[in-house]
Amino acid sequence: MFNYARTALGLLPKRPAGPSSAAGDGPVVYTADWFPAIKVSEVMEGRVAFVGLPSADLGTDIDWRLDPYRNRSWALNLHALRWMGRLVAEYERSGRREYLTRAGEIAEDWVRKNPRGGPGVSPWAWAEHAVALRAPALVCLSAYVRTGWLSGSLAEHAEILSDPALYRQGHNHGLDQDIALLAVGCRLGRERWRDLAVRRMAESAELAIDEQGVLHEQAPRYGIYVHRRLGTAMDMIGRSGAEVPAVLAARRKALETYISHATQPDGRLVPIGDSPADTRPPGFPHEEPVVKVFDGGYVFGRTAWDDPGSAYYSIRFGPGRRLHGHEDHLGVTYHAQGRDILVEAGFHSYERTAYREWTASPEAHNVPVVVGAAFRERTATRLVHASVGPGRQFYRLTDDAYGVGRTRSVLVGHGADLMAVLDEVPAGSALRSLWHFAPSLTMVSARGGRTVLADGTWRVTLLQFTTPSCRPLDGQTIRTGSISTGYLKRAEAVTVLSPPAASMLTVIVPGTGDPEVSYSGGQVTVRTPAGPVSFPLSLDPPHGAVPPAERPPETPDTSGHPCFSARFL
Predict the structure, then answer these.
(1) What pLDDT, on the 0 to 100 scale, is given for residue 543?
(2) Which residue has the higher pLDDT, 566 or 396?
(3) Distance between CA 440 and CA 446 in Å, rounded?
(4) Alpha helix (H) ranges present in 163-213?
(5) Which of 517, 410, 428, 524 is nearest to 468 (CA)?
(6) What average pLDDT score do residues 41-69 get?
(7) Is the peptide bond before 36 cis (omega within 30 degrees of 0)?
(8) Residue 306 CA neighbour count, 13 Å, CB half
(9) How far apart are alpha carbons 370 and 368 in whole angstroms?
(10) Is the Cβ–Cβ distance between 422 and 508 less than 8 Å?
C-alpha cells in the first residue's frame, strides 16, 4: 500500500542515534517529547482518540475526510498529525523501529492524499492552525527520514507559515505558526524564516499579553496554553542559536500572575470565557496580594493563598468581547467554604450549536439584563471605583450594553463570608438579575424574596430587596438548566431570575439557610454564621465614597423606614 514504507524506510537505522545533521540538514529544534500522549498500541492498530471522545477506526488506508463525531476539534487533531509525531517520540524512547515505520506511513499517506487545493480535500487539511501544528511533527520525522516528498512538504508548510496574509498576529494560533516556522526554518537552514518567526513572536507577545499578564483572548485557559507554548518557543530559540527576546520572558512571567489569580482555592481555573470548568493549571509561585484588579478587565479576590477553605470571587469588566471571551461583563462568580456557589455556564465545545451560542451570551452569566432592551454585543464596561481592604472590598462598574446606563456595585466580605450586589438602571427602565448556582446545590425553598439551596446539610441563601425601601423583593423565577462542567460535559443546575426592578440589592450568605437581616439608619445588617456584617444600602465603602460624577442618579433617602422588625421572612 505504501511505496514509501517499502523503500525509504528501509534505510533507517535499527536504533535511534539522535536527530541527524547530514550535509545540508539544519538542526531539529523541536523535541518530539513535546507532542501530546497517545495510546501507541491503538495507533499501531489503526485507531485514534482525540479530545476525550471514543477511539475511532482509521484503518491502514486512511480516509482523511473522516469526521465520525462531527467535531471541529477532532477533525483538527486528525490533520495536525501530532499523534504521528508522538510515534517518533516513542521510537526515540524505545528504539522500536515499527513505530517510526508507522509514523512514516501516516505522514506519506497524508502528503499524497491532501494536495493543497486538491479536489475533495478536507478543509481542515490546510487550515492555518492545522498547518502550524503539523509542521513540527514533520520536522521531527525528518530527523530520521530523508525523502523528497517530506522535504518538499516542509518547504510548502514554511511558505504558508511565512505568508503575512495567513498570519494570526497576537493570537495563540499565531504563536503556533511562529513555533512551526522556526522549526522548519532551522531544519531547512533558512535563517530568514527563523528570524521572521522570532521577530513575530516578540511583536505578538506585546499585543497579546499586557504588562500585568492579562491575555487579550479573554479566557484564562488560553493563558495556560500560551504560557506553555512560550516556554517551548524560548527553548527552541535557544537551541537555534538565536537570542531569546526579553519581552518573551517578561510577558511569559507576567502570565503566571494572571493564571494564579484566576485559580480558585480548590485548584480549578475559574471558568471565564472559553475556559472549561474542570481545568487545573500548574501551580506557580506567588507573592501577590490576595486581591488584584487587572486593568484588562478582571477582579480576582480570595481570603488567603494556598487555603482550600478560602473564599474567592471574580468580576468582569473591560474591553468588549473578543476571540475566546464571552458576553460576561458585570458578571461575578463566588466560591466560599470549600464550595462553588455562583458559577457561569462555562465552556462546552467549539461546535457551532445553539447551546454553544447560549453559553457565550449574557443570559449564561451572573449579570443584570435590562427588560425589553436589545443587547449590544462587544460593549466595553468601566470599573469606576474600587476600594480594597483586608476584610471587605467594594467595586462599582457601569456600561450601556442595553442602550441605557447599567450600574452594578459589588461588596464582598471576607472572614464573615458575604457577597452583596446592587444593580441599577435609570428611572423608566427595569432590569432582572440572573444567578446561576453550582450543580452541587439543590433547591430547598423560595419565598418572600429568599431562595435557599443546599449541598447536603450545608446551606446558602440568596436574599433580594427593592431599593431604596429595602423591602423584600418577591417573585423570583426558579429554573433548572444545563451548564457546562468541562469539555463536552453538562450538568443540571439551578438559576434564579429576579423579578423586574429599577434597582435591587442581592445578598448571598454562605453557610446558612436562615440569616437574620435588619435595616436601620441606611445600614443593612446581615447575621452570618461568622458574625454580623453591616453595610450601607448603597454599598459605598465608609472611607472611600464614590465620587459624585461616577455615581448613578439617586432616589430620595428613606433609610429611616425599617424593612424588618427582626428577621427576614
Answers:
(1) 54
(2) 396
(3) 17
(4) 172-187, 191-208
(5) 524
(6) 94
(7) no
(8) 6
(9) 7
(10) no
Torsion of CA 424, 427, 429, 430, to 10 degrees: 50
Strands 450-455 and 339-342: unpaired
For residue 451, give the H/E element and its range: strand 450-455
Handedness of CA 460, 272, 362, 320 (dihedral sign): positive
Q: Which three three-digit cell numbers place residue 407?
A: 450600574
Query: Of 113, 112, 114, 85, whose CA–CA distance to 100 is shortest?
Result: 85
User: If pLDDT is split at 50, 70 and 90, which confidence band does 548 have?
Assistant: very low
Which pLDDT does position 542 carry in this prediction?
A: 64
Q: Which of 114, 116, 92, 110 is nearest to 40 (CA)?
A: 92
Angle in degrees, 0-180, between the axes of helices 172-187 and 220-240, rounded to the nearest 10? 20
Taking the whole predicted model, whether its pTM rises above 0.70 is answered as yes
Q: What is the pLDDT of residue 526?
A: 96
For 432, phi then psi, to 5°, come to -130, 130
19, three cell numbers: 536527530
Could you report the per-residue pLDDT of 106-127, keeping only the tens digit for each?
A: 999 999 999 999 999 999 999 9
C-alpha cell at 347: 465552556
